[in-house]
Amino acid sequence: MSMHSQLKLLVNLALIDNEVADREKKYIINIGVANGMEKEEVEKLFTQSHEIIIPDGLSSDQKFNYLFSLVQLMKIDERLYKEEIKYCSQVASKLGYKQEVMFELMLKVSASMQQAEIDKLRMLVEGYLVK
Question: N or C terminus: which one in the chain shows less Cβ crowding within 10 Å?
Fold first, then answer.
C-alpha cells in the first residue's frame, strides 16, 4: 500500500506543470516496477491527480524514501518550479519533517547519487523529523 501511495505523490509532482517529461515518467515507472508493480498499473496513475495521503506507521527510512524520491524527481528535469517546491514542502510536513528539511535536500540531492551519499543524507535528514 505504501508504494502505491508514494507513486501517487510522485505522479502529482510530475503533473504540477501540466506536462510530464519522459524522464519523469520513466523515473516513476522504474520505481513502481522495481517494487513489484506492473508497468501498466503505474501508467494508469498518470491519468489523474491524487489526494496527498501518507500511510500511517511509516518508518523513518520509508519517510526518507518518500521525500528523497520526490526531490530527486523534482530535480530530474533540471528545472525547479515554485509549485513543485511548495508541494514537496507540504508532503515533508505531512511526513513529520520540519520545513527546513527542504533546504538540505534541494542542496544535496542530485539525479544520480551513490548509495554512500544517500545513506549520509538519510542520517542528516533524520535530524529534521519532529519527535
Answer: C
Query: Residue 129: beta bridge partners?
Result: 97
Residue 92 within any structural domain of the chain? yes
What cell numbers appear for 45 in the block?
496513475
Domain boundaries, position 47: 2-126
* Number of neighbouring beta carbons within 10 Å of residue 62: 16
Helical ranges in 1-131 per DSSP H = 2-15, 22-34, 39-44, 60-76, 82-95, 101-108, 115-126
* pTM listed for this prediction: 0.85
Name the grid cell of 5. 501511495
Give pLDDT tens digits for 14-34.
998 888 889 999 999 999 999
